[in-house]
Amino acid sequence: MKKDRETEAPEDFDVHDLPSVAERRSKATPKTVPEAVLRRLPRYFRILRGLFNADILRVSSDELSSHLGITASQLRQDMKYFDAEGQRGYGYSVKALYTSVSSLLGVSKKHTAAMVGAGNLGSAIASSMILEQRGVWLKGVFDVKAALIGKTVAGVPVRDAAELPDFCSANNIDILIICCDPGSAERAAELASGTGVRGIWNFSQYELQSEKTGVPTENVCTGDSLMNLIYEMSGKNENKTQI
To answer: According to CATH, where is 3.40.50.720 located in the chain?
Structure first.
C-alpha cells in the first residue's frame, strides 16, 4: 500500500532521526533478545528499508516471512522483541518495524570507523553506501604501502598505519574495519587495542577472536558464501557431477 499524507515520511527522513525503542517504551520491562533473532535483525533491516523505499506502508506476516525465508509463526514470535503489534486485516506498520529494528541494531546512533587497508577491497567498501546506510561514518583510512599513503579513498585521505593508535584515540573511533592482507590483520587489531575502539569488522581472511582482541569481532569471508552455493549446487546435481 502506498503512503498517505498523514504517514508519509518528510523528505529529509533519515534512520538516525527515528525515535528509539527505549524512548517509546520507557516503562516497559527490557527483553533479552535471543541470539537467533539477533542474527536475523540485519535481514529485517535490509528488507524493511527496501519496503519503505518502495513506498509500502503496511506488510502482513505472511508477506514479510516470505521475504525473510522463515515461517509466519516464527516471524510472529520475533515480533514480540520488536515492540510491534500487528492487526488482523492490516498487518504491521513498515515504518514502526523499521524504527524498532534500527534501534535494536543501534543504527539510529552514529558510529565512527577507521579502516586499515586501502586496496581494492577497502576502496570498494568505503565507496559503497553500506556504511552510511547503517549509521557508520568513515573518518580515517590507513595502509602500510607508501604508494597508497597520501591518496584518497571515498574522499578520505590515506594515512600511514603507524598513525592508527593516535588517530583512533583522538577521534573516538568506535569500529575498526580491517581490509588488509591476512598477515597484517592481527597487527592492525593490536594497534587499535586500548584506543577506545569497541568493535572490529574483519575482511582479512584471518580469523580474529574476540577473546584476544578484547572487543566484539565479526569475521567476514565472502568466499564462504560462494562455497556454500557451490555445495548446494553440487548436492542438487549429484547425479550429474562427480566430486
So the answer is: 111-224
Q: Of all helices (H) and strands (E), which one includes residue 170? A: helix 164-170
**DSSP E strand boundaries for the chain:** 58-59, 92-93, 111-116, 136-143, 152-153, 156-160, 175-178, 199-202, 217-219
Q: Which tens digit of pLDDT belongs to each residue from 12-40?
A: 334 444 444 334 333 333 468 888 888 89
Grid coordinates representing 135 are: 549509521
* First CA to last CA distance, the chain: 48
CA 184 – CA 163 distance, rounded (Å): 15
Q: Which three cell numbers stand for residue 3?
A: 503512503
Condensed to tens digits (0 to 9), the pLDDT of residues 106-139 reads: 877 789 999 999 999 999 999 999 998 888 999 9
- Give pLDDT, residue 133: 84
Residue 45: Cβ-neighbour burial (10 angstroms; 0-12, 13-18, 19+): buried
Give residue-wise pLDDT tens across range 177-210. Answer: 999 999 999 999 999 999 999 999 999 999 999 9
Gap between the Cα atoms of 21 and 40, Å rounded:
18
CATH class of the 111-224 domain in this structure:
alpha beta
Domain with CATH 1.10.10.10 in the chain: 15-105
pTM across the whole model: 0.71
Distances in Å between the alpha carbon of 184 and those of 120, 165, 175, 217, 223? 16, 15, 17, 16, 19
Which among 210, 207, 184 has a CA at the least distance from the CA of 197?
A: 210
Pairing mode, if any, of strands 199-202 and 217-219? parallel
**Beta pairing partners, 230:** none
Top CATH class of 15-105 equals mainly alpha
